[in-house]
Amino acid sequence: MHAVIGNWKQNPATIDEVNTLLDSLLAATEDQDANDQHCQLMVAPSCIHLTGVSARLQNTSILAAAQDISAHSSSIGAYTGDCSAQQIADAGATWTILGHSERRQYHKESHQTLVNKVNNAFEHNLGVVFCIGETQTQYDDKQTFAVLDKQLAVIKDSIAKLKEQHIDSKKLSEDLIIAYEPVWAIGTGKVPTVEEVSATHEHIKQTVAAFDKALPAVTVLYGGSVNTDNADDFAASTMIDGALVGGASLKADSFLAIANAFNRAKS
Ligand code: PGA
Fold it and tell me: Are 202 and 178 in contact (CB under 8 A)?
């Protein structure tokens, strides 16, 4: 699968601005021929906007994703401030981002928290965009693969649990995307080279493949300061299946230019 996903984070400030962004996205994509689309487009608004965004994206080529779900319960319960996988799916989202570095940093998300979240998502048929990435110090210390392996152990443990529930590995791979996002590249304008990203994606694909023989190759996106200037270079690598875009996804023009770069390269 190829995908370009807009992670809107805690933006925009108002529903009016959300609708303006959606107006532009929908106007530019509604006339596109489905046969020419080789990249799944997705946007992840903040939770408060998810119902409205999902409703407007119904029957369009763009999917709606959440940015997070509750670890504590997949359904309902006394968990003030949380939104469950069931509620997110009911709001119309079909995917959720999990383990974003900002969640790991500001909410101290642990291995077990993330295993619970992944399992809660799958329980309600939400696809998971699982984010991993090393910090600047870890990158400088050449610890990248070791850090990623540790973070990917969440997926290993989730797969083991799902297999106990006899969930088909093929279905699992269709519902899982890994987003490699070096923490030092997020929102900084700094990016690793395409060669570095490609080698890292190869490592991620091999690592996930080793978790279960039946798993087809997992989709791996690159994220971190993807913009209209560097999108073509990333898209040209066969190891890079798409992009998770933060800042540049808040303007329809730049988001669609990035999406088009991947669409052209993956056709
Ligand atoms: P950025 O964010 O594109 O603004 O660097 C990417 C992300 O955090 O997903």
Answer: no
Helix 252-265 crosses helix 15-29 at what angle (to 10 degrees)? 40
Asked whether residue 27 is assigned to any structural domain, the reply reads no
Task: Indicate whether 36 pLDDT > 80.
Answer: no
pLDDT for 52 equals 97
pTM: 0.96
Which is catalytic among the residues 102, 109, 134, 181?
A: 181
- pLDDT, position 157: 93
Query: How many structural domains does the chain have?
Result: 1
What secondary structure, in 3-state letters, does 100-158 show? Answer: CHHHHHHHCCCHHHHHHHHHHHHHCCCEEEEEECCCHHHHHCCCHHHHHHHHHHHHHHH
Place of tokens 């870890």: 138
Q: How far apart are CA 124 and CA 201, in angstroms?
A: 28
Q: What is the mean pLDDT of residues 116-127?
A: 94
Residue with CA nearest ligand 1 atom 3: 246
Pick from 68, 95, 177, 186 the residue to mutate for probing ligand 1's pocket: most ligand atoms within 8 Å of its CB: 186
Domain region containing 170: 3-21+38-265
Checking if the pLDDT of 171 tops 80, the result is: no
Domain annotation covers residue 143 = yes
Question: Does residue 26 lie in a domain region?
Answer: no
Measured in degrees and rounded to the nearest 5, phi and psi for residue 108 equal 50, 45
Rounded-to-10 torsion of CA 215, 258, 235, 212: -10
Task: Give domain status of residue 29, yes or no.
Answer: no
The residue count of the chain comes to 267
201 in catalytic set: no
Query: In the annotation, is 123 catalytic?
Result: no
- CATH number for the domain harbouring residue 216: 3.20.20.70
Region 34-60: what's the mean pLDDT? 93
